[in-house]
Design goal:
The protein has helices at 3-19, 41-52, 60-72, 84-94, 119-127, 146-152, 172-181, 233-243, 291-301, 304-322, 356-365, 382-385, 396-404, 416-431, and strands at 77-81, 110-114, 131-135, 157-163, 185-189, 197-198, 201-202, 209-213, 226-230, 328-329, 337-338, 343-348, 390-391, 405-409. The protein is α/β, with parallel strands linked by helices. It binds pyridoxal-5'-phosphate. It comes from Streptomyces smyrnaeus.
Length: 434
Amino acid sequence: MNERAAHILDEVRKYHQDVQDGGGFVPGVTEIWPSGAVLDEEDRAALVEAALDMRIAAGRSSRRFESAFARRMKRRKAHLTNSGSSANLLAVSSLTSPLLGDRRLRPGDEVLTVAAGFPTTVNPILQNGLVPVFVDVELRTYNTTVERLERAIGPRTRAIIMAHTLGNPFEAAEVARLAEDHDLLLIEDTCDAVGSTYDGRPAGTFGDLATVSFYPAHHLTTGEGGCVLTSNLVLARIVESLRDWGRDCWCEPGENDTCHKRFGYQMGTLPAGYDHKYIFSHVGYNLKATDLQGALGLSQLDKLDHFCSVRRRNWRLLREGLDGLPWLVLPEATPRSDPSWFGFALTVDPEAPFSRAALVDFLESRRIGTRRLFAGNLTRHPAYIDQPHRVSGELTNSDTITEQTFWIGVYPALTEEMIDYVVASIAEFVRSHG
Ligand SMILES: Cc1ncc(COP(=O)(O)O)c(C=O)c1O
């Protein structure tokens, strides 16, 4: 780095300190957001450094972030995308690739998923002409079980995609075994669960593919952004092709002829020697991320352990502080898991002398932010009512979630003082009603 750039970056770090909000926490006045980005002076400097270099498309930093993140997540390959939703679209689309031969999913094949989830975990199933099969989840863990999945398997069921809800891993080892026994492909939506483990093994390492979101609410942020992880090199190649317009060539931007055969292929009905850079083997997209995102991701990655440990501490303080309060169903970690929590879910007992709306209004009036457990029961949304799908069993708990559940934040900007205030506020509300 030249002297001028080093000077600018020093100034950027000082600027960052100057614009920090020095005001302390004022209960009832300071917003307690449910989620958000935690960005420090190094993040700001990383973005400016990438900007000074004018690395505006994918480049050096995105490649470095891909390999560092893959290493950290214990997968062989990571492909950055412009969002977690795009990562899910790529992961599901990759299962339809001709390169998978007989294992390839075909239109009308079924994919198991949960009804209480995030829409873009499910949408790629429909976008690929596949049929989602919705199963119910448990209250407290907000994940489904192997038994529910097993009961849902039909003759055309070929894959499973579902999220580790709010960072809490589903029974990943057992689900992976079920998938293997029934020749199903498994995608772990790990968008909310970076850093979580099941049986001591990272979430995102049990399936054929895993996806991550780097939107500001998530464990790491690149602004908008996401990533597909896999250790299967065929799937990695398919994901890359689908992400990069569907091309067959795998040269990075700015590279040429890394296979030493750029003009040596004959594919489809193209003339022999057609430039491999322009041969398309998939009906693809362009879902790439930029180098600014890569630079921010690298800088954020240094702080991942700290972020996860504060998330765990905040969740534990909420869990201990609210323990024993009547009318609230408190969350529980899946046995044998160590979640790196995304949020703290609360379900108001339907028999409670107060409604979810009243509790949420009270918290919001104290500037304590709340969120719904995403869509609740997706099948009740206008978008899905007329879409092809199958429901396995009853969706009773998904309906309860739609009507009674919300979550509050644990993200690393929340201090112990804020969490104490959240606990005191909920306790005050519940006791005043009972
Ligand atoms: C479980 C889950 N999957 C997918 C996504 C989509 O990620 P993105 O917002 O980056 O598109 C989210 C977003 O919060 C999510 O929570």
